[in-house]
Amino acid sequence: AYYSRAIVEQNDQDAIAAWSTQIPPGIESQAQYWIAAGAWAERNGQTKEAARAYWQAALLEPDNGESLNRLATILARLGLNEPSRLVAVRAGQLAKARDMVDTMQSR
């Protein structure tokens, strides 16, 4: 799943095409796969598909701040302001909790 993230983030169209012909079994159960799919859809102007992918990532890993932030952003683009706000609030809560843990661990 992380390989798919890397090639999507690098926008390596040849690698994406090659990889898409041999997608590993079970990868759909990994949030990173869905974040990669969402980023690819977003880059290609497929806003609804991106929202669907980020939603799936958030379902698989409810405490994944990256998928929640991306989902909040894409929901706002779709004009779904209240759902976007709610998702953004949750992402913010997770960020604060992580900051608190980091602070405690550094003492």
Provide structural commentary.
The protein has helices at residues 2-9, 13-20, 31-43, 47-60, 65-77, 81-105. The protein is mainly α and 107 residues long. Helix 1 packs parallel to helix 3 and helix 5 packs antiparallel against helix 6 (81-105). The model has no long low-confidence stretch (mean pLDDT 88).
Measured as a percent range, the helix fraction is over 70%
Principal-axis shape: globular
Mean pLDDT: 88
Question: What structural class should be given to the helix and strand makeup?
Answer: mainly alpha
Features:
107 residues, mainly alpha, 76% helix
Question: Which helices and strands appear, and what pairs or packs with what?
Answer:
Layout: H1 2-9, H2 13-20, H3 31-43, H4 47-60, H5 65-77, H6 81-105
Describe what is shown at a glance.
With 107 residues, the protein is an all-alpha fold. The chain contains six helices and no strands.
